[in-house]
Write a structure and sequence with these properties.
Oligomer: heterodimer
Strand order of the largest sheet of chain A: 6-7-8-3-9-10
Shape of chain A: globular
Radius of gyration of chain B: 20 Å
Number of strands of chain B: 0
Largest sheet of chain A: 6 strands, mixed
Mean pLDDT of chain A: 88
CATH superfamily of the largest domain in chain A: P-loop containing nucleotide triphosphate hydrolases
Low-confidence stretches of chain B: none
Helix content of chain B: over 70%
Largest sheet of chain B: none
Order of helices and strands of chain A: EEEHEEHEHHHEHEHEEEEEHEH
Helix content of chain A: 25-40%
Structural class of chain B: mainly alpha
Radius of gyration of chain A: 23 Å
Number of domains of chain A: 2
CATH topology of the largest domain in chain A: Rossmann fold
Number of helices of chain B: 12
Strand content of chain B: under 5%
Shape of chain B: elongated
Largest interface: A-B, 33 and 25 residues
Number of strands of chain A: 14
CATH architecture of the largest domain in chain A: 3-Layer(aba) Sandwich
Low-confidence stretches of chain A: none
Strand content of chain A: 25-35%
Structural class of chain A: alpha/beta
Distance between the termini of chain A: 34 Å
Chain lengths: ~300, ~250
């Protein structure tokens, strides 16, 4: 069974729709992106999945617990979901460990002290554990907030803009933490407007712009881009590729053989190669096109 | 869960010197100023003091000037000690609930499985405990001061015992529940604090009228006040729990 099944979720505030027709599934162990501009309804969707908002219409199942129109998820659902809120949201005068312990107890985490210490170690916060929260750096605060989302060992982790407002160093730290979670096969919904984050971390992403626009599968590292220094007909290497596309001086191939073997074959056939690089998934193009289509409608 | 919330709230109060200072300043003033004035008056102008209490309050104390003036103060100053539990509870509760929203800690808190009733109850108890403790300590010090000046035990009399032991907890609960209700509707915790604190104004008005010798609050008034406040407490708690809805709190 999927970890999250959302079916036609809709929510409005004071008659103003925040999102509608949001449907997607997230498999266990999958990192799923929620992409959209500010005010697109990403946070609203996440809050519905976290049991904070009741949808106006639609249904969802999160970690086996139901959400329906007018009925937000109850305490059982909230106990199985770890939510990283957009702002860290801790108590300034309490230390990092006291803050984490407070939420561990509220989440009825098993052996809260041991769990907190393990998470502080994992996120390299142990030596700052007894400093007041207000004195921590932005990156540390955000890592502590991620630790809080994990403190009760949730089945589903919802991350709302984990790198928003962070400096480049803190952003890199936080992204590596999320990458670690993904490598551990955690079920994650990553809500962001950074395409790069989605490209790097997610297997699929839903585009939201007031409503669900599309679900895009992220293809990572499967295509090879070869820039040619001079025009060349690459027919001789077709046998080494699943697919091959020449666009101007750019050759896009889906390799069947090892990369050095393909490059060697091209050189033998007389090609002059300027650059060879993995081709990034054209998420940005897809996103901009989908947004334009959504606005036209 | 209530215990977890209470412990955290009290820890935050202990770590906030400004809040502790603002909580201590009013009770210190309420105790120290009248006692010091009384002591000075009895020593510096005993004749005038006696004439004043006889004229204004109709007090004829056979035990002497000090006892006469002290008995007037003892009788009339009780409403000030009824203001304290409301004021202190409002100070803490408004910060505690409105502050959660201001510091953006409300969403993580509401994302836990803890019920809203536990959150409201935990925060309320954590606001009421220090308010009552400070009120009782201040009342005890005031009684000791009055007794010392009078030269015999004037306080606590039955009205004081009823006021501090029965009315104070009811009023602390009233202040707290008012702050919870106001905080759930008003975004700024300071505005919530000011609005909720304005509930002490009727008591302050009674104090002024009593000090001016216009009215004399007796046992019947205090019993009626207790009954009225108890009824208001029940109603306010019901409203507070209903207003403390996860979605409403996050979307306001």
């Amino acid at each position: 069974m999927a970890a999250i099944e959302a079916d036609a979720l809709a929510k409005s505030f004071g008659g103003r729709p925040a999102c509608r027709d949001v449907s997607f599934t997230v498999e266990r162990g999958e990192v799923f992106g929620l992409l959209g501009p500010n005010g697109a309804g990403k946070t609203t969707t996440l809050r519905m999945l976290a049991g904070l908002y009741a949808p106006d219409a639609g249904t969802a199942r999160v970690a086996g617990h139901s959400i329906a129109a007018g009925r937000p998820g109850g305490p059982e659902l909230r106990a199985r979901v770890g939510l990283l809120t957009e702002s860290p949201g801790f108590y300034d005068r309490l230390t990092a460990r006291e803050n984490l312990m407070y939420f561990a107890r509220l989440q009825t985490a098993r052996q809260p002290a041991r769990r907190c210490d393990a998470l502080l170690d994992r996120f390299a916060l142990r030596e700052h554990a007894h400093r007041p929260f207000a004195e921590l750096s932005r990156g540390m605060k955000q890592k502590l907030a991620i630790a809080r989302a994990l403190v009760h060992d949730p089945e589903v982790i919802l991350l709302d803009e984990p790198t928003v407002g962070l400096d480049p160093e803190a952003t890199r730290e936080v992204r590596s933490v999320v990458a670690e979670l993904a490598a551990d096969h955690a079920t994650i919904v990553l809500c962001t407007h950074h395409l790069e984050e989605v490209e790097r971390l997610c297997s699929r992403a839903a585009f939201i712009a007031g409503r669900l626009v599309a679900i895009h599968e992220i293809r990572r590292g499967s295509l090879l881009r070869i820039e040619l220094a001079a025009p060349f007909a690459p027919d001789g290497v077709r046998g080494l590729c699943h697919s091959l596309r020449l666009s101007g001086s750019t050759l896009l191939i889906e390799p069947r053989a090892e990369v050095p073997e393909i490059v060697a074959a091209l050189v033998r056939a007389g090609a002059r190669i300027a650059e060879v690089a993995p081709h990034r998934d054209p998420l940005e193009d897809a996103w901009l096109q989908l947004l334009a289509e959504a606005r036209e409608r | 869960m209530i215990g977890v919330v209470i412990r955290k709230e009290l820890l935050e109060v202990r770590r906030s010197p400004v809040l502790l200072l603002s909580m201590a300043s009013l009770p210190a003033t309420v105790v120290a100023v009248p006692i010091a004035l009384l002591a000075w008056l009895v020593r510096a102008a005993p004749e005038q003091a006696l004439l004043f209490v006889q004229d204004v309050y109709g007090v004829h104390e056979p035990a002497g000037v000090a006892a006469g003036v002290a008995s007037v103060l003892a009788r009339n100053w009780l409403p000030m000690f009824l203001v304290l539990p409301i004021f202190l509870a409002v100070l803490l509760a408004a910060q505690s609930i409105g502050g959660e929203r201001e510091r953006r800690t409300l969403e993580p808190l509401l994302a836990t499985p803890v019920g809203t009733l536990s959150i409201v109850a935990g925060k309320s108890v954590a606001a009421m405990l220090p308010a009552l403790a400070i009120t009782w300590i201040a009342a005890a010090l005031f009684c000791l001061g009055i007794d010392a000046i009078a030269g015999h035990m004037l306080l606590p009399d039955p009205a004081w015992l009823f006021g501090t032991l029965v009315l104070s907890p009811l009023l602390a609960l009233f202040g707290n529940a008012t702050a919870v209700v106001v905080s759930s509707r008003v975004l700024d915790p300071r505005a919530a604090q000011n609005l909720a604190a304005s509930t002490v104004l009727p008591l302050l008005a009674l104090l002024v009228f009593q000090l001016a010798g216009r009215i004399a609050l007796g046992p019947r008034f205090y019993f009626a006040l207790a009954a009225g406040v108890a009824a208001a407490d029940v109603a306010l708690i019901a409203v507070a729990v209903r207003l403390f809805d996860r979605e409403k709190l996050l979307t306001r």
